[in-house]
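quick one: 3-(2-carboxyethyl)benzoic acid bound model?
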Amino acid sequence: MEPPTLVPCSYDVRYEPDSVAPLGDEVLACIHFGPAARAGDGDPRRIRVPLRQFGAAPLMEVWRSRRPVERGWSDGFGYAHNGDVMMGQLVVDEATVAADLDATSARAYVHIEALLRRLGYPAWLRIWNYLAHITHGAGDHERYRLFTHGRYRALALRPGFEAHLPAATAIGTFDGGLLIFFLAARSPGVQAENPRQVSAFNYPRQYGIRSPSFSRATRKHWAQGRHLYVSGTAAVIGHETAHAGDPLQQLDETVRNLQALLASAHMEGARPLGLKLYARREQDFEALRQRALEVYGAGAPLLCLHGEVCRRDLLTEIEALYADPEG
Ligand code: 3EB
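yep, here:
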């Protein structure tokens, strides 16, 4: 349940021209998109997603706090928090991932939950998972399924966990092992599911031994208005892929899914603070980007990334952060 007194939203999110300038003290997180190899400056708030970006000038995603930020490293995690929310990240190298992805994922999620509790932000709102070669491997040994299995083993330790799952992204990269980063708050948001889709945590056996542990969206009430953290959304109807082989039809279906989700969360009037479009194949990019700009408007905050959706027949996916008009 939401507490009766709402705290003000203590951060904002923007896409800005990519820059490696040192981060100001007010920055909660700065997410870069590009090749993994670039060395970091050791700042725990700098997150590097190893996905190529499409578009004229590369953008970065900056989360700015309106209150002083405390930051540091702890047990391999980079984190920053401001009393209301925290952002944290964990990078696991490919050698560790390849040795045992199931166990690595379970360990990562157990450690994340421990970190959130230790720092006092037990309610996660949103989590991003970027896994190299996500659809490599056959059957239940596919890397995405091994990851899903480990994640489930960690999260299912809590009774009733399905009602508290965060919104999520799981996207394949072409190098870089496993990168996980997450937004968490002092008090929980409200889970939203999509009436057009089977909840991912109820997916049938054909997608793996255990179902994927995420909610379609998390709604968080701040004093200025509400945020809706929308999971990676694709052309999934029920639990099945629609329009296999047709990227534009998949995008249109994705947009319908997003509209249905906004409606079920009672946030039809919301505006996107950030949209990310992922495309599996480079050759689909221009057409997908054009269609997204038609739907969301030429001025929409849109970032286009070359990444693999975690099902082989899904060619595209959109994730979003929505806010109430005045929020
Ligand atoms: C789907 O709807 C597409 O496993 O964390 C989207 C967002 C998808 C998150 C995850 C998977 C995940 O099933 C795949």
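Residues 129, 168-170, 200, 212, 214, 231-232, 234, 236, 310 surround 3-(2-carboxyethyl)benzoic acid (CB under 6 Å).
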